[in-house]
Amino acid sequence: MKEPTLHFQQGNRQLSVQRDWCKGCNLCVENCPSHILSLDDGERIVVEDISRCIFCGICAVRCPDFVFTLERVASPALAMGGTA
Amino acid sequence: MTKPGVDLLPYLREEMLPTVWCPGCGHGIIARGIATALMSLGLDKDQVAFVGGIGCSGRAPFYFDAHSMHTTHGRALAFATGLKMVNPGLTVIVPMGDGDSMAIGGNHLIHAARRNIDITAIVFNNSIYGMTGGQAAPTSPLESRSTTSPMGSIEPAFDTVELALAAGATYVARTTTFDFQEMPQLIAGAIRHHGFSLVEVLSQCPTYYGRLNKLGEAPDMLLYERDRTKLLEAFGPPPEITREEMVGQLPIGLFRNEERPEYVDQYHGLVARAGGGKNAS
Amino acid sequence: MRLVQGNEAVALAAVKAGCNFYSGYPITPATEIMEMMARQMPKTGGVFIQMEDEIGSIAAAIGAAWGGAKAMTATSGPGFSLMQENIGYACMTQTPVVVVDSQRGGPSTGLPTLPAQGEVMQARYGTHGDHEVIVLTASSVVEAYRMTIEAFNLSETYRLPVILLLDAVLSHMRENVEFPDVPVRERQVPVIDEHFLPFGPDAPFVPFGSGHHTVVTGMSHDETGLPKALAGQAVQRMLKGLQERLRHDAREITFYHEVALDDAEIVLLTYGITARAAREAVQALRQEGVRAGLLDVQTLWPFPDSLVIEKTKDAKAVLVPELNLGQYAMAVRASLAGRCPVESLGRCDGELFTPEALADAAKQLARSVQIGGVAHD
Question: Where are the alpha helices (DSSP H) in chain C?
Answer without folding.
Answer: 6-16, 31-44, 54-66, 77-92, 120-125, 141-158, 168-172, 231-248, 250-253, 273-287, 305-311, 327-336, 355-368
